[in-house]
Structure formats: C-alpha cells, structure tokens
Amino acid sequence: MSNDIKIVRREIRDFLLINFGIIAFISIFLFLSSSKTNAEGLAANFAILFMYIPAFSTIIVLKKISKYEFKPEIDKFFKVFAIATILRIITTIGESFLPNGGWLSSIIDTIVSAYLLYLVLVNSHEMKDINLCFGKNSKKIATVILIFIVIVLASNIPEFINGQVNSDKLMENIVYAMMNLIINFLVGFNLFFGEEFGWRYFLQPRLQKLYGKRIGVIILGFIWGIWHAPLCFTLYSPKTPIHCVVAHVITCIFLGIYLGYAYMKTENIWAPMLLHMVNNVIGIIFGGGYTAVYTWESLLYSILTFAILFTPFLLTKEYKSNKENEFLS
Length: 329
Known about the structure:
Pfam families: Rce1-like. With 329 residues, the protein is mainly alpha-helical.
C-alpha cells in the first residue's frame, strides 16, 4: 500500500466506483427476476455472485489502475479469479431469464473454488505476499475463531431460555452446520475470498490510514452493510427491506470490528475468511436461514447485543497501536 495519501484516496475511490457500479448493474437483473416464480432461487444465485465483486474490484485497482507488481503465481491466481467473475456475471444474468436457472453457476463456483484453493495451497509461500498463506499464524487464527464461537453462542442463550431455538433439533442443526462449514471451505473458498480480500485486505488498511484504525473500520462496516441493500429488497427481507438494510449496516459495523481485529492480530486474510464462514454457519443453527422479517424491537435488540459483544475489541492493542500495518496490503 502506498504511503501517498492522494494515491490511497484514489484507490479507495476507484474501488468503490467499480464495486458499487458492478453491483448496481447486476442488481438491475436481480430486480427484474424478483417477480418470477423461481425468484428466491434466482436471488440466492445473485447473492453468491455479489461475493465475487469486492475481490474482483480489488484486482482491477491493483493490477490495471495502480499497476502493482506481484509474483507470477499470484498473477495467475488473480487472472483465474477475474475470468471466473466475468463468466459468473454473464452466466447469472443469462440464467435469470431461464425457468430452471442456477445449475451452471453452481458448477462454475465448485470448479473455480477447488482450483483456486489448490493454487493457494501449492503456492503457500508465494501467497504470503497477499496475506493468504494458510499456515501463517495458525494458532492465532484458531484462537480468534474459538473466541468468536464462544461469544456468539453465549449471546444466543436467551433464545434457548425463551424457547426460540428448537432444542430437539439442535444436534441435527449442529451436524448440518459442520457439514456446511466443510463444504464452504472446499467449494466456497472463492466466495469468502471474494468478500474478505476486498473488505479486509484492500479497503480496511486504506480507510484506517486515512481515518485512524477505529474510525476506519467503522466506516468500512457501514460500506459493507449498505452493499447488501439490493439483497434486502429481493432475498433477505422483501417484507421489511428498510429494517433489513439497517440491520445489515449495524451487524456489519460491529462484526467488522471483530473481523478487523482478527485480521490485524493474525496478519492473515484466512482469519476473516474463516470467521465469515463460521458466522454464516452459526446463522443456520440460530437464524433459520438467510431470510427474515425484521421489527424495530429486533433491531434494537441487535444493536444492544452486538455493541456489547464486539465494541470492547476497539480497546485491544491492535486498535491502540500507532504502528502502520504495512503487512496488511
């Protein structure tokens, strides 16, 4: 990452224009498909496509605009991901006009994920240059994941007490969630890389350089949250979309505090990637899926809960340190 503030500002601007520009374009087709009989399945397919876009935008900025130089192994990795993203955009839009669309996109995701994961593992040493080495600070990664699981599970104790979580199906849901975690690792690598490489690797250190570590990560959380807006209107909560947008902004700000902490502590993008996977899987156990109907009461409860759980991490040494984290990008 450049030390020139003007360059940093330009890179942030270019990233946001490309990222939100592509999201706006594909959202046209997302909304056009929302009245079809298979609307939910199509919207879910678009939601997966969304996850490619942050990393794709990062690659364009780094390679095509700012002209960063990387090792051949990383350039190959970037090229495969970029081509896969373009192919995925074309396929997803095309499938939105078909009665049984989605299967081709799933095949692309599986093949691309497996191949990219292979490239990362066989070129582990070279991937250190983009903080994607699987074995780097593995104990710290395991620690931040364990802390996260304990915090989130503890926060759901009231749901057990009030009977909102079906205890009879708890073990079944846990087994299902673990299976999903393994599947996400193997065939969803490209998706979680797609988000976290854009948000945490690229945008976080740049925003923190401009606004400080705490304010920078909060601004990132807002951007990350508002980025979900089209999906709130079509997939996550069509009946209460405004509530959904607010909920995502709140969740992403507070969750982003912890993911930002985890990234700075481990110096490895695998940490937020795996935490993102775990967070989604825990949602299967307690949230009942990705669709919901929100109320202002539930939003207030979410604000208080997430604030209590994650705001204290702003007081950790990772956020207090004045040292420039050049390793982050």
